[in-house]
Specification:
It is a single chain. This protein is an alpha/beta fold. The chain has 2 domains: 7-123, 3-Layer(aba) Sandwich (Rossmann fold); 142-239, Regulator of K+ conductance, C-terminal domain (Alpha-Beta Plaits), CATH 3.30.70. It contains 5 helices and 11 strands; from the N terminus they run βαββαβαββαβββββα. The protein has helices at residues 15-26, 59-65, 80-93, 125-138, 223-239, and strands spanning 7-11, 30-35, 50-53, 72-75, 98-102, 120-122, 141-147, 152-158, 179-186, 189-191, 204-209. The protein has a 6-stranded parallel beta sheet with strand order 3-2-1-4-5-6, sandwiched between helices. It has a 5-stranded antiparallel beta sheet with strand order 7-8-11-9-10. A hairpin with a 4-residue loop joins β7 and β8. The longest helix is centred in the last third of the chain and has 17 residues, at 223-239. The relative contact order is 0.12. Residues 142-224 form the RCK C-terminal domain.
Length: 249
């Protein structure tokens, strides 16, 4: 399946923002980097991206950037307050479909929710890249952390409204080998999944796998969704993103 190329705005052109931009450009997406600090405004470092020297927390700057034409906005600054403001403006004022935000201080993690316009929030540079690519690949798929020396992974999948899994029962899920659905978060409720539990749009499903599924695992029956999950895990394993005990230190 050919992926749709998207217009993605990144607020913050520091080391992390530029790294993310480079990876997304390699995937063929159109990138706009927004940076207010002159010291970080270096278009020559990512020449294939568009650049705007402006404060992404200001409405007029985002209007100049044409944020309403973006498919994804990434708040990647080193300041949590700025990332929250960018996320809220992107979602509320410009209706951006997907907002991804970086959490710098894990004590602020509770703020990074859809109340602030955030669809995907991660707390480390490595997880930021994985989370962005996961969100772009399948909507709301984020590999949260690895443990057991990288041999196990925790992944969150948020079901979009039109996802084919909506309306299915847990017993009908055709999971990759050695993968288990451990919980479903629905609003303020934590649900221990029972076989007859019916999945709803907006459900946050947390999976644990005790290894990175082989390419052949459930290849014929897993469908495109699970093939994407397997691809994300294999990619992160190759990058070594799962080498630590956790991505949320």
């Amino acid at each position: 399946m050919v992926k749709r190329k998207m217009r993605i705005a990144i607020a913050g052109a520091g080391k992390i923002g530029r790294s993310i931009a480079g990876e997304l450009l390699e995937s063929g997406h159109k990138i706009l980097l927004i940076e207010r600090e002159r010291s970080n405004f270096e278009p020559n470092t990512v020449p294939d991206a568009d650049w705007l020297n402006a404060d992404a927390c200001e409405l007029t700057a985002l209007q100049e950037a044409g944020l309403q034409t973006c498919d994804v906005v990434i708040a990647a600054t080193g300041d949590d307050k700025s990332n929250l403001v960018v996320g809220l403006l992107a979602k509320v004022e410009f209706g951006v479909p997907r907002v991804v935000a970086r959490i710098n201080d894990v004590r602020n993690e509770w703020l990074f929710t859809q109340t602030w316009g955030i669809d995907v929030a991660v707390s480390t540079p490595e997880a930021m890249v994985a989370g962005i690519e996961g969100a772009i690949d399948v909507g709301h798929l984020v590999r949260l952390m690895a443990f057991h020396e990288g041999r196990a992974a925790l992944t969150k999948l948020t079901l979009p409204e039109r996802d084919p899994l909506v309306g299915q029962q847990v017993r009908e899920l055709d999971l990759p080998e050695a993968t288990v659905l451990v919980t479903v978060l629905r609003g303020d409720n934590v649900i221990v999944p029972q076989p007859g539990e019916v999945l709803e749009a907006g459900d946050e499903m947390l999976f644990v796998s005790n290894n990175f599924p082989d390419q052949s695992s459930n290849a014929d029956t897993g469908g495109p969704l699970w093939e994407t999950i397997r691809k994300v895990w294999r990619r992160d394993a190759q990058r070594g993103l799962g080498s630590g005990s956790s991505n949320a230190k």
